[in-house]
Amino acid sequence: MAEPAARPEGTSGGIVIKDDWPGYELDLFSYPAHYCGDLDCVFIPHGVIMDRTERLARNIMDDLGDHDIVVLCVLKGGYRFCVDLVDRIKSLSRNSDRSIPMRVHFIRLKSYLNDQSTEDLHILGAEDLSFLAGKAIVGTGKTMETLLKYVEAFRPKLIKVAGLLVKRVPHNAACLPDYVGFEIPDRFVVGYALDYNEYFRDLTHICVISKSGKMKYKI
Ligand code: HPA
Ligand code: MG
Q1: pLDDT at 38 over 70
Q2: Which has the closest alpha carbon to 177: 11, 12, 2?
Q3: One-letter-per-residue 3-state SS of 31-81
Q4: Which residues form the Phosphoribosyltransferase domain (predicted)?
Q5: Cβ(190) to ligand 1 under 6 A?
Q6: Mean per-residue pLDDT for 12-21?
Q7: Are 173 and 148 in contact (CB under 8 A)?
Q8: Residue 128: which pLDDT band, with cuts at 50, 70 and 90?
Q9: CA 43 to ligand 1 center in whole angstroms
């Protein structure tokens, strides 16, 4: 089985969004009126997310050869990315001479309160697993490390992780996904299923939450 292309050390392999990227003005796009005032900018528009996901799907197809795929969707933040990624893999598979069987499982992880990572990671509801993909965001990499240990116990033939976003955090993630959509600055983003205390999952773009948004939905 082919490995994804080697990455230069210290890089994630995703599209790099620089620290000084200001995002797009909110009013250039549409977004739910109930979030007016709660966001600073559109950081990654939905269409760009979809185009990047399509390319990741192709890379995954190219690497996977004839393996069956068991997709493990990491809820709740990964659900949009996972659905769209599986959709793209399915349509590429339909249009090729290689139809890849896919099963989808779900696992639920929770480690954030407000915008802070908490020590205790809860893994809720998992079944028998043999392959892995589909997390929306990797910050410290702690969650991903725990998850990998957990999945390895099922002795899958191969484990690959797809992450839509990797954050450039001060002590960079020890553990990076094999497939990365975007590498982003260390800012708290919401939308496309990513939440702040369960809000903003219903936003299609990935946006930066504003100070007043954080205050409004703080627990
Ligand atoms: N947004 C939402 N959830 C998260 C983030 C983020 O920036 N980082 C880790 N979990
Ligand atoms: Mg969350």
Answers
A1: yes
A2: 12
A3: CCHHHCCCEEEEEECHHHHHHHHHHHHHHHHHHHCCCCEEEEEEECCCHHH
A4: 50-196
A5: yes
A6: 94
A7: no
A8: very low
A9: 13
Q: Are 208 and 23 in contact (CB under 8 A)?
A: yes
Report ipTM (2 d.p.). 0.97
Neighbours of ion ligand 2 (CB under 5 A): 112, 195
**Among 23-37, 44-58, 132-146, which is the least confidently predicted range?**
132-146
The pTM is what?
Answer: 0.86
Q: Count CB neighbours of 218 within 10 A.
A: 11
**Which ligand ends up closest to the CA of 110?**
2
How far is Cα 150 from Cα 100, in angstroms, rounded to an integer?
A: 25
Contact 181, 56 (CB under 8 A): yes
At 176, list the tokens.
């990076």
Atom of ligand 1 nearest to the CA of 196: 2
CA-CA distance, 16 to 114, in Å (whole number)?
Answer: 26
Closest CA to 199 of 49, 39, 25: 39
